[in-house]
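Notes to self after the Tuesday call (sharing in case useful).
The group wants a holo model before anyone commits to mutagenesis around the pocket. I volunteered. Ligand is guanosine-5'-triphosphate. Logging inputs and output together so the record is complete.
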Amino acid sequence: MWKWSAYRLAGRRTGINRIRLTVICSACKHLSTVRSSLSKVRNIGIIAHIDAGKTTTTERMLYYAGVSKHIGDVDTGDTITDFLEQERSRGITIQSAAISFPWRDSFTVNLIDTPGHIDFTFEVIRALKVIDACVVILDAVAGVEAQTEKVWGQSQSKPKICFINKMDRMGASFNHTVNDLIGNFMQGTTSKPVLINIPYYEKHPASNDYVFQGVIDVINEKRLTWNPEDPDEITIDDLDGISLKQCNRCKESMIETLTEFDEDLVQHFLEEAEGDYSKVSAQSLNASIRKLTVQNKIVPILCGASFKNIGVQPLLDAVVNYLPSPIEATLPELNDKDIPMKYDPKVGCLVNDNKNFCIAFAFKVITDPIRGKQVYVRIYSGRLNSGNTVYNSTTGEKFKLGKLLVPHAGTSQPVDVLTAGQIGLLTGSTIENNVSTGDTLLSHSLKKDGLKSFDKKKELTLKINPIFIPPPVFGVSIEPRTLSNKKSMENALNTLVTEDPSLSITQNDETGQTVLNGMGELHLEIAKYRLVNDLKADVEFGQLMVSYKETINSETNLETYESDDGYKFSLSVLPNAAHIPNCATYPLGINDNYLVMKNNVKYDKEWRLQVPLESIINSIMASCIVGLQRGGKLANFPLYGCSIKIRGDWSVPLDIETPQEILKITRNLVLTALDDLPTDGYALLEPIMDLDLTIPQSDVGTVLQDLAGARKAQVLSIEDECSPITPAPSSNASFENNERIYIPPDVISTLHTIKDKKKSQDATFNMKKNIKARVPLREITAYTNKLRSLSQGRGEFNIEYFDMEKVTDDRLQSILHDL
Ligand SMILES: Nc1nc2c(ncn2[C@@H]2O[C@H](COP(=O)(O)OP(=O)(O)OP(=O)(O)O)[C@@H](O)[C@H]2O)c(=O)[nH]1
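Result:
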């Protein structure tokens, strides 16, 4: 592997100022022969707004890591991580792709490149569930965008690094983007930005334009410039003039921020560095940045232009230097909070102090045309060995593991064992019906079938909390072209929903209509394409429609089944309540519905069953889903926001062999309970969307009128959007913001302001307004054309699911009329 940091340090010490860094393609060898110790593994996700440059950056990372020999490009459709045909032809990421690669000899980076489009938000949610830290990419022209805010929120307290990309673009502003980050995410919090590098521009000799050429490395006080003709050549220079001044001020600001939190650095600063900022060692700074990033007290910020291959190696360095390893990351959330869990430096996450306890989480299922079903898992503790018996604590099923793989986006590599901290793939026929997204897998690390040695009541009931699936908002009816195609259509739909649980199928028993539901128009368009082209379903689709739901206004009757031999089971359905005393709530994973049972039912009873209790509860849950999916009485829309409450004294015949029997009984009870409820006991729910709209100030009146009138929107706020060119402060002005962080001024915007005052005035005149509103999805479909005409094509908007809301009686009649 190539020694980026070693060269950099050598360059600094010996005065070498031009080096050609050669990539030795040893990545594949590395993965098969070297297993990084846990402290050298990084599980990261790349998250951002659509088009910020996630895939472009990932592609450069793979090139510099030696995984690929040429740099793929989203615009020509030959990237490694966007390997689906639709991703390549549309130039967007649709599904998150996981890939492992080495960095700096000993580190292994497991990276998940996620989609930016809001329709594929579930891909981001599931990636965030299994990664330890994030790289947030921002477009230096756009700054913080709607989806940046969304993914930042979703990533919660995971440690982050920000990469301000596209610094080469006209209008790029490092200063504005950092301020935007502070304003949106850090102001009023304890989290602070730390500038690891800042942009460096060179004047083009012919045009006199400033061109983004590299970065100033604040810690090592060097200028790094990339050769536009050769992605492998970086020139490293000492700093002088304005670059040196800016670097010094950044370093002082960095030390001030770090010493606010880090006593060790304060000591180093006062003692070894004798209170002199320039004497604080790079090693101490890096150690402090690492410590505080892992604690989520600071967010390191870097910049570059991935498309021009600028700034990617320092970003990779920052990933391994500052982001947590699996033994420093947040522990997974388990269903049983009383089970002890901690990090052990040697074995990673240790559950119940049991070194042999392997706990893994299935976060994604794919269907490979040759290998069949494959399941992505994150190993949290212990080791998962090929051939070992695994217990699925979500379903209660046991199965033997087949071949294990380490993923490389489109391809993957066989391994015998997956260890704590790793992301791997399970393959083989045994997983076919035994694992789905969100399942927890348990295994004994050493014995082939060591499950018997686990504590049945504690260890074998452990589950990692499942992934939240947002409700679908759009649907499209689907039917087979001929009756003989029905079965293959069902199989294809099944494959699709198994791979992407944010798609769902609803079946109207009365009309026989099948509806495929998804998160948005693009989501369904891609699903339709995949059904027809990849899964070869011979089907026809109806018009796109809003996915309405129904709910109930009050609790149903209690329905009871009692067998001759005293086997008793009663339930009722009720609207979701905040809390039902003494009861455990099991999410059904769809439409915000729950199963509610008396607390600790499993421990209260002497279960002597031939099938595990987990699989009986799973059967009850499965039949609750079927019962609620059959729909309400208004228009057969699936039921949403309902809880099925099982009476505390339920029992199961001791000789029960399969859970089938209980499945049928539960479903019938749910259906009877719902049938007995009169029609006016049901309410129609419609999806309400958060609308984020940016329009020129001159169009605010017309757009607002349309929103409040025809679209029934509730306007939440109207604010100024920054003008496209931020007037630069004068050279004497302080560039410190409220957080007292020094951010260097933008060379380009200074130039613009001085050169072209008139343009700047126009920009101020054309100031944009940002409107936030809540609007029913039904009223905002096909809004693109309307907004185009209202704003002469200058308006932009984003919608995102907010909640399901009950409709008024008038609206109900109008919606039912249109169906
Ligand atoms: N000028 C410039 N363009 C860039 C840069 N990085 C990416 N792009 C372009 O921006 C567009 C989007 O890049 P992607 O890498 O697909 O962005 P993404 O964030 O992965 O997009 P989604 O996954 O679809 O959300 C492409 O046309 C890239 O060529 C950059 O540094 N400079």
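Two things stood out.
Residues 557-676 form a domain with the Ribosomal Protein S5; domain 2 fold (CATH 3.30.230.10).
The chain has 22 helices and 38 strands.
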